[in-house]
């Protein structure tokens, strides 16, 4: 709700041809307050929305929708219970509302598809020295994030393209990887709206080789517009310009076209999983 309202407030200001500084000066508040409401970092109160709608001359129908979103936005979402980076919180909120996701990962498996042990190994690698309490919290968030998306009704349409390197990287050892590959195979069988393709290492150079990103689309009639979420160890970015979204779609499609078909990908997943199974130490 907060992200929907933030998008509508930003759109209304642009339609009115005003800058953040101009709006802040008129409402006698700081530009930072307007910026935080437009990015979803700060929940906009109904009074804030009323004043902004008056200033932007928003029509009655859209005003009522924004006022309702402001009221709903005061309710805390499950992820508000955690102190998360803003970019990550935004991603969770967008995933909760998305009708479709197109995701490419070059070196790790998408967080929505990770087993708990794989997620723990990946998250633990961020911290030196280790912070067990924070690691536990972030793993719990990742597992709850999976439940929130993969148990939705209806499920979003999801297409994942994984570079084979992400499957060959031994995260946590053969046991962890065998379970992780099993998880990917189970998803391809149990979730008809989820497609997994592997981009073979034999394919060589490809369009998405130097990046990792997700294109999210939202149901028709909602105020949210398509967005690209770019994930990086130094922080997350949200790209909303139409030219950026179009470019990301093209890059993703080129990667998907270069990848193995879903059936061929499943065969490779089974092959790599069997390799990890053979590499496991014998039981004592």
TrEMBL record:
It comes from the Bacteria. Residues 9-63 form the HTH cro/C1-type domain. The lineage of its organism: Bacteria, Bacillati, Actinomycetota, Actinomycetes, Micromonosporales. InterPro entries: Cro/C1-type_HTH, DUF5753, Lambda_DNA-bd_dom_sf. GO terms for molecular function: DNA binding. Pfam families: DUF5753, HTH_31. Gene3D superfamilies: lambda repressor-like DNA-binding domains (1.10.260.40). This is Transcriptional regulator with XRE-family HTH domain.
């Amino acid at each position: 709700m907060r992200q929907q309202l933030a998008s509508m407030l930003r759109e209304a200001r642009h339609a009115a041809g005003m800058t953040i500084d101009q709006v802040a000066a008129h409402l006698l508040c700081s530009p930072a307050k307007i910026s935080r409401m437009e990015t979803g970092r700060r929940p906009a109160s109904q009074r804030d929305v009323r004043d902004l709608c008056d200033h932007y001359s928003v029509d009655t129908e859209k005003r009522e929708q924004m006022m309702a979103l402001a009221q709903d936005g005061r309710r805390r979402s499950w992820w508000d219970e955690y102190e998360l980076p803003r970019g990550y919180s935004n991603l969770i909120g967008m995933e909760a509302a998305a009708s479709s996701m197109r995701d490419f990962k070059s070196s790790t498996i998408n967080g929505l598809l990770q087993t708990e042990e794989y997620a723990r190994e990946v998250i633990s690698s961020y911290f030196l020295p280790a912070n067990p309490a924070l690691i536990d919290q972030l793993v719990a968030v990742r597992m709850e994030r999976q439940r929130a998306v993969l148990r939705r009704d209806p499920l979003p349409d999801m297409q994942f393209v994984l570079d084979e390197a992400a499957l060959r990287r031994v995260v946590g050892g053969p046991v962890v990887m065998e379970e992780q590959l099993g998880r990917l195979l189970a998803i391809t069988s149990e979730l008809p709206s989820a497609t997994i393709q592997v981009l073979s290492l034999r394919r060589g150079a490809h369009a998405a080789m130097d990046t990792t990103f997700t294109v999210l689309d939202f149901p028709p009639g909602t105020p949210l517009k398509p967005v690209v979420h770019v994930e990086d160890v130094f922080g997350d970015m949200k790209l909303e310009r139409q030219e950026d979204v179009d470019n990301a779609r093209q890059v993703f499609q080129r990667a998907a076209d270069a990848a193995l078909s879903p059936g061929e990908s499943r065969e490779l997943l089974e092959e790599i999983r069997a390799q990890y199974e053979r590499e496991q130490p014998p039981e004592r």
